[in-house]
Amino acid sequence: MPIDPFLLLLLLHNNKLNVYFLKSIRQKVGSYKLKKRLRSVKRVKRMETFTSARSVGVLFNANNVDYYEPIHKFAGYLNRLGIKTRLWGVVDDKKIPDLYLMKSDIRIISQNDLSFFMEPSGHISDDFLDDTPDMLITVDFKNSFPVYYLSALSEAPFKVGSASKFDSCYDFLLKTDNPSPDFFLQSITDYLGKIKISKEFIAN
Length: 204
Prior knowledge:
Elements: H1 5-13, H2 19-38, E1 55-61, H3 68-80, E2 84-90, H4 98-101, E3 106-109, H5 123-130, E4 135-139, H6 145-153, E5 158-162, E6 172-174, H7 181-192, H8 199-203
Parallel strand pairs: 1-2, 1-4, 2-3, 4-5, 5-6
Helix pairs in contact: 2-6
């Protein structure tokens, strides 16, 4: 007699030895649901650089609080260029680190905002998806599924990210052997800060 998949999930949930396996199943179901949801997303792709973009969203894996400072400085650099920049972070914990609670320039999505299948939900996730910057830059070197979920659903015309197993949604990929936000963001600046795009190219 076949076992009901939801009963299997329940049994696994009560067995601490199978936490990793349970998380894997949850993520696979979440991936399936994401693919279905992506069918209704109508994104118009458009090449953007720091000379053409008027707004940038930076989404990052915020588990390591040391990531905040270089990302904050990067946002300050873009703002000085006249590019409106917003920061969004995803924490793999129910408790948001105190550092982020003291900052007014970042909005955090925690485990409290995830469904059982690891799908970000709630008003902060909705605000992220409602906000459509000219460029989305995703900083994640740990293959966070919730970070990928949000990046994939964003309708930003131009998406930038690092090469990983969750990189299918990006238009510009940067492969690096130095997985640090400082190096990654500096490399992006070197590439996208020097390219100029004609108005005719943007229109096409």
